[in-house]
Amino acid sequence: MKLEIRKATVNDSTTLALLAQITFKEAFGHFWSDRETLKKYFKKTFAVEKMRSSLEKENNVFWIAFADELPVGYAKLKKYSPFEKLKDKRPAQLQKIYILNQYIGHKIGTQLQDVLFDEVRKLNIKSLWLVVWDENDKGIRFYERHGFIKIAKHQYSFEHMEIDYEIMTKTF
User: Fold this and answer.
1) pLDDT tens digit string along 34-59?
2) 77, 95 in Cβ contact below 8 A?
3) Residues paired with 167 in a beta bridge
């Protein structure tokens, strides 16, 4: 398998929106018993226009992973993302790393994360934080293997759903 990772541009909005919807549904679709609520969440979070807007912001950096020229995953870094539980007042946030299910196990997530870590170092960022669903044991173990530690809990509400998350951080 030939793997290529590159920074995304505004021209990748459609590809990113589709990847985001598919990978999110693969990872968490079973949790959303109401399909209409999931559709509303996609419209709010992963619509093409939302991706385009996010890509246009100077504070965001996206990468897309291609396996044999097919888009199979992506990552997003928010370069400046204050978080009150951190001493560092200029931390960044790893907002997303998602891989299509059939490509998990090929170290694509690790490679996307490595590219993101390189960007963090290049920008001289000292702290990186993320939010991960507290029932995503595989994701939590992945982040712990890469130096993240749990520091707090967070709850997110959407429509009638309440979702609990772990806040994790890594210093550079």
Assistant:
1) 888 888 889 989 999 999 999 999 99
2) yes
3) 131, 152
